[in-house]
Write a structure and sequence with these properties.
The chain has 547 residues and is an alpha/beta fold. It has 3 domains: 2-72, no CATH class; 81-85 and 217-507, TIM Barrel (Alpha-Beta Barrel); 86-209, Diaminopimelate Epimerase, Chain A, domain 1, CATH 3.10.310.70. The chain has 18 helices and 24 strands. The chain has an 8-stranded parallel beta sheet. A 6-stranded mixed beta sheet has the order 3-2-7-22-23-24, with helices on one face. A 6-stranded mixed beta sheet has the order 9-10-11-12-14-13.
Amino acid sequence: MRLAAALIALLLSQPVLADGLIDNANGYSFDGKGQLIRFNGVLIDGQGRVARLLDRFEKRPDKLDFRLDVQGRTLIPGLIDAHGHVMALGEAALSLDFSATSSLVEAQGALRKYAADRPTPLWIRGFGWNQERWRLGRFPTAAEIDAITPGRPAVLDRVDGHALLANSAAMVAAGIGAKTKDPPGGRIERDARGNPTGVFVDAAQKLILDAVPAMLPRDRDAALAKAQDILLSNGITATADMGTSSDDWQVLRRAGDGGRLRIRIISYAAGVPTMLAVAGTGPTPWLYDGRLRMVGVKLIADGALGSRGARLKAPYSDAPGQHGLQLIDDTRLRNLMSRAAMDGFQTAVHAIGDGANAQLLGAIEELAATYQGDRRWRIEHAQIVDPADLPRFGKNGIIASMQPVHQTSDRLMAEARLGSARLAGAYAWRAMLDNKVPLAFGSDYPVESPNPFPALAAAISRQDAAGQPAGGWQPEQVISIAEAFRAFTATAAYAAFAEDQIGSLAPGHFADFVIVDRDIFTTTAPDIRGTRAVETWIGGKRVWVAK
């Protein structure tokens, strides 16, 4: 024992080889047991990784390539968005954005100005409309935008990406008419005479999107650059890209080849064919110094609440004849998950309604007997869960990949769609943790803002920016700030098989961190909501600074 102690003391006394030092920080990270720890300095080695965390009284190396005194500001591990859509974020930011509009009239005005300011290209693309926010009580229609866009096809995506509004010119270009049938897993909204009104839900969107001209490569490169700027400015240093297409992968590879891939992107392919075409026989290695990796596949079991596509066990309270959409049957779901698992790919399956969650839980329970080991089956969103199914999440290594801001955005809509009696298992973060379920947080950007700090505030308060509802919505589901922060860092990394590289500032991990303008661990939810990133660092290098 004495010899072992002497050896440890000798090792600790040896100088640490480091190229840089971030000093005088109010630092937070996690230890190997997932517990929050404090530190004062970060030594960074020549590979852009953490060499050691220092307390206030430890000796600093004499020779360094750089030393930055952050003057007591709070330094935290880089935040990881466990569920986002990278290219969609950039494309939405460069197109017509309806997310801030509060009425149909306001949206019509935005469309009119956008069309007038941009006579080219011919097709108009927009994103972010939400009939619930507009308090419209129904979907918008093509007739309500036709006069604004005469002769120009317009395709406007709903905020959740599970429905779109097409004007008459777009429907003509796509060959859509009264005789067009609803595709499996999709729905065309129609008027009393059976004519399409312009709204296409889930799989029906493809009928329109197939007619939309493809973006030029330079425009897609610009979209990626814009998305990276947005993410880095919000303190996001890594993200899971849920639904990477083959074209998306080429954009990411071009950026990597050109040294323009600044953020870390963990890719989940848009379907098994894309997964096999890109990665082949197993997850790719980390590329571009840990900037890019394809680790699995994204599947979609149902739609979204806003478009009544989420699959429910019982009918919608505000649409008694509808249960939502089952986008994949039981046999095909199991076959696709099995095909991924046999080559070591991870599966991440979108499931919002309690019916879809139950379907996916059943598939995992059946497949887990065959594909044993560390599979980390991911259920994306897990928004509406039958309370009887919550304990099932705690088995078979399932990860609940959830988005706190959906709870504050969807609260009133969820009450209308399901009624209060069916919401006991809705957005149930506390219940997930109590059932020993790893909880990974994200935003589902561009459906929601990628800013993680309002999400942290929502997680610990169950209240929106206005402090509503008083006392929090289903306050028994709140979690602590340490638990919420872990879900945005260490567990988000674990959820993507990246915990050996990112997620905490442990020695050997990449030196990815954010300097923020306040201490999020010693303040209130409203104050956390207003937190801003001051600097974002990836691999020991500053990649973004607030202006």
